[in-house]
Design brief:
151 residues, mainly alpha, elongated
Length: 151
């Protein structure tokens, strides 16, 4: 189990760090620009998603390219499609609920409930991550056998 936890941390932790920074920055900029908490919640949600999934896709592409190059095969557009499909399977169910309901609601209400914008955004993100990672990790483990074999 320790090995699995290390694998998940190597995969998800750098993406999380980038996502937290993007979430805080976008939410703060949107709040400053609009004065609207809902705009801040949505901007934070989507900026965090772009940073998170951009990092993961970049890592998957880099790793797949290395694997293919080691065996003398090229990375093609079709391979990129396989990388994108693997991410969609890994995160599809979790992401739908997370981005459209759970995360925006928490990002909207937590700053109000806690009385601090920054603290509320971070706490909301951490709470939303709990409901996000359970199905995502299960899907990741299942997808490794079928969708992440490029040897």
């Amino acid at each position: 189990m320790k090995q699995k936890i290390r694998e998940w941390l190597r995969r998800y932790l750098p993406a999380e760090v980038l996502s937290v920074a993007a979430t805080l920055l976008a939410a703060a900029l949107a709040l400053r620009a609009t004065g609207n908490g809902l705009s801040a919640a949505l901007a934070g949600t989507w900026a965090g998603n772009v940073a998170y999934f951009g990092w993961l896709l970049g890592q998957d592409v880099w790793q797949t390219r290395r694997t293919l190059q080691a065996s003398g095969r090229p990375y093609r557009w079709r391979t990129l499609g396989q990388n994108v499909r693997a991410l969609a399977v890994e995160f599809g169910v979790a992401e739908v609920f997370d981005s459209l309901l759970i995360r925006p609601a928490l990002l909207y209400y937590m700053p109000r409930w806690l009385g601090s914008f920054g603290t509320g955004i971070v706490v909301a993100k951490l709470l939303a991550d709990v409901t996000f990672y359970i199905p995502a990790i299960i899907s990741y483990e299942l997808s490794k056998k079928r969708l992440r074999r490029f040897e």
